[in-house]
Design brief:
The longest helix is centred in the C-terminal third of the chain and has 21 residues. The protein has 4 helices and no strands. The protein is an all-alpha fold and 93 residues long.
């Protein structure tokens, strides 16, 4: 439920949502859902605010990490395997 032209999120609103998600043990995906933004937009805002907080000697607490099932890597490896195998077969001729 995101919009390309969504209104900017104020630093105060972002931090408020960030704290709520952190308290509930949430992830960046949970934060994106709460703010109705994409994960990419939320990461960009987090990076921007992190540097501003660092100037103020503050650090955002880490959100729970997303679990990596390895499926994306398996799919990527299969794509690479399919690409390389025909090349290897042709080079042996």
């Amino acid at each position: 439920m995101t919009s390309k032209n969504a209104a900017p999120i104020s630093a105060k609103n972002f931090i408020s949502a960030y704290i709520a998600v952190h308290q509930n043990g949430g992830t960046i995906v949970d934060l994106a859902e709460k703010l109705e933004r994409t994960v990419l937009q939320v990461r960009a805002k987090k990076n921007s605010l992190s540097s501003q907080m660092k100037v103020r000697d503050l650090k955002l607490p880490q959100l729970k990490r997303l679990k990596d099932t390895g499926v994306a890597y398996d799919e990527a490896a299969e794509l690479l395997r399919m690409y390389i195998e025909p090349c290897v077969e042709n080079s042996e001729v």
